[in-house]
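Much of what follows relies on a compact textual record of a protein's fold. A complete example follows; check for yourself that the lines match position by position.
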Amino acid sequence: MRPGIPPSEQLYRHLLDEVSAFIYSTDRNGRYTYANQLVLKLLGAPNLEAVLGRSFTDFVDIGEADTTLRETDRQVLEQGLTVEREESNYIHAIGELRTYWSIKKPLRDAEGRINGMLGISYDITEVKRLRDEVHSQNQLLDTVLNNVDALVYMKDEERRFRYANQKTAATFGLPVESIVGRLDSELMPQEAADRFWAHDQKIIATNQGLSCEVALPDHRGQLRHYWSVVVPWTTRDGQRAVIGLSTDITELHQLKEELQRQAMTDVLTAVANRRAFFRQAGQELARSRRHGLPMALIYLDLDHFKNINDCHGHPVGDTVLQSFARFCQGMLRQEDLLARTGGEEFCILLPNVDLDAAHRLAERLRTALPAHDCRVPHLPELRVSASFGVAALNAEDAGLESLFARADRALYAAKERGRNTTVTLS
């Protein structure tokens, strides 16, 4: 025990020296009246007597913090407020800038008058460093994610968005803060939300990522296509979630569709080409077999078309082919398929149509063709006719080849009969 100090006070001082906080008191002029061992060590003082009667600024360079520090002390000593705040000070004894969380309260005498201040400070230098580092990393991550040309988001197992970058927000036409916490079904059509949620559930259940192409209308109602990579994630609180990164591939998707369309379309007449015809004909054949439905085929050829090219040139011939294709399309049903299968040869596939109905259609086309304006403006004398071969699917047909061959024979027979006629083979 220290002489002259009551045992109870020495016990209190011992307890204050053992706590992991800087504890001190000052008079109304800011001079120390007490400091525990952590404060003494921080200030580089050998004992309490070395700091008693001296002020904080005798040991510490507070620099630009001087005004704020004095205002804080004034609020405590003059207004009787308890103030909690972060403080940073350069400590001479250790030659370092340290940061503290300080709590300052007024001390009062028996009559309630303020006669000093009690301070308790916790060194949060390392905590602040880590906090600033995390903040800096978060800022960097936000900058990266908000400038990535993709939708980045997190959804929890309750279908609520936990994170969304600016690209995601722009797609929904909302600020980020209006997205976080909301259900997917509140932000997109129900059908799309349920479809995505089915994928999310599979990812969460299997703990395996999924990559696929998805489509979603944006806030303007325009359908956008994305290549989406979604992976499972478990949050710190144990909640399962998914993290998605979706790259807009709408232009690529449209280009792919256009290339596919071009690959299946005759460039000159804009009807189906030979490849598209046989692909769809094969599908219709399978459907007809499966459901017991009839199917017919008309094979037609423009009469003496070579003479048109030889006499008037290929540009005129091209005009005639384009006009003829438009004429045929105007007399067909939506489910019928018109294709250019050769130079001046066309095929018409007729799903759910029997032989008699196909023959009647061929005759309507043949008889209506002369009245159709297939003529070239500067060649009013030019007339166009065609020959038609008609066949229908029967039980003996092994496949599409036999039906096509029968229609071809019918067309050949029509040409043998002088052209501009229709021949049907059962």
